[in-house]
Amino acid sequence: MSTPSVVVEHLSKSFGETRAVEDVSFEVRPGEVFGLLGPNGAGKTTTIRMMLDIFKPDSGRVEILGSDPAKVSKDRIGYLPEDRGLYKDIPLEQVLIFLATLKGLSDGEAKSRLAPWLERVDLSEHRRKKVRELSKGMQQKAQVIATLLHEPDLIVVDEPFAGLDPVNTRLIKEIIQEQVAAGRSVIMSTHQMYQVQALCDRIVLIDHGRSVLYGRVEEIRRDFAANAVIVEGEGDFSALPQVLEARQENGAWRLSLETGADPQKVLRALTTRPGVKLERFERAEPSLDDIFVTVVTDGRRTGAAQADEGAAQADEGAAQADEGAAQTHSGAAQTHSGAAQAGRAPHNNE
Questions:
Q1: What is the number of alpha carbons within 13 Å of residue 23 lying toward its C-beta?
Q2: What CA–CA distance (Å, rounded) separates 177 from 154?
């Protein structure tokens, strides 16, 4: 197996009292698209910035392209941040050439590489316009060029499809796939789960700073698969052995199976049933979007339950403390009462 492009081990980072990232670990391999996912505020951007040596971690280790991030030539990395950074009052062509020279290209080399890129993303006729005169989608495509023009080995893109229409979204997807085919590693952070499902080989899902899901996309979907199969075709799909319910869904039939049912037995029953013409039979797998919602929601419920349990324990502790204090006051009162009675008792010599 080839050496990983990125190694993140037990990474943690706090800002004051806020724990932004806690004990996150993952690897990114050459020639793959890796999804770095999570809800807003989960710690994704902080993780990226530690990987790129913008932030220093409190603990843990990062290795980029076989080296410490501080020692890796930035020419080998392409970074498309969520917060865009093109100079607004400079013509597009000049901005992109300038940014390429910061990554080690000469003016001449930058110009020769830039021309086909501008043509590819349909920006050639806009190259002399100031950046502020371009639409949001055009600026996004320009940012993609700036990220890739110096041909980096590691590409990190944060919300690469922001502001793009379906045609340009497909174009950027094709460009990402071409980069991977050339052996480069792509780390993609996005909220568009259907794009992740279409592009990413593996993912890590971060929630509240912690890694809560990590692995290959198809394996994760299988692990979360419902106990059901999807079938398409003609005929009667009701009253099948080991099938609890059959209902139509998006032009197909969803067969909910009994616990422990064997889908192959259901398939054999269908293929031998008179009048059935089967065109499709597959296990029902949830979308990555469904899994994302399930994991994050369950995590929040667990956190809320733990918080409620902690609050209940705190209340119980406070009640016990109050009870102890009451017993102490009662004991003190009894002591005072005993002393008072002793003071009123008659003396024997009277």
A1: 2
A2: 14
Query: Are 216 and 253 in a shared domain?
Result: no
Q: Which helix (H) or strand (E) segment is 110 a member of?
A: helix 107-120
- Can you give the residue range of the structural domain that contains 164? 6-221
- The amino acid at residue 264 is Q
User: For residues 297-315, b (16+ Cβ closer than 10 Å) or e, as one string?
Assistant: eebeeeeeeeeeeeeeeee
User: Could you say which of 236, 255, 283 is where a domain stops?
Assistant: 283
Q: What is the CATH number of the domain that holds 249?
A: 3.30.70
Number of neighbouring beta carbons within 10 Å of residue 125: 9
Question: Does 138 share its domain with 156?
Answer: yes
Q: How many domains does the chain have?
A: 2
> How does pLDDT run across 11-24, given as a tens digit for each residue?
999 999 999 999 99
Of 196, 221, 246, which residue constitutes the final position of a domain?
221
* Main-chain dihedrals φ then ψ at residue 26, nearest 5 degrees: -170, 170
Q: Which helix (H) or strand (E) holds 8?
A: strand 6-15
Query: Do 243 and 146 share a structural domain?
Result: no
Q: Which helix (H) or strand (E) holds 324?
A: helix 288-344
By the 10 Å C-beta count (0-12 exposed, 13-18 middle, 19+ buried), 44 is classed as: buried
Provide the Cα torsion 66, 71, 74, 79; round to 10°.
60
In a domain, 67, yes or no: yes
pTM of the model: 0.77
- Do residue 200 and residue 257 come from a single domain? no
The string of pLDDT tens digits covering residues 224-276 is 887 889 999 998 888 899 999 888 888 899 898 888 889 999 999 999 999 99
**Distance in angstroms (rounded) separating the CA atoms of residues 170 and 324:** 69
- In sequence order, the 6+-apart residues with CB closer than 8 A to the CB of 70 are 53
Q: Are residues 110 and 235 in the same domain?
A: no
- The CA distance from 153 to 139, in Å, is 23
Say which DSSP state 126 is in: G
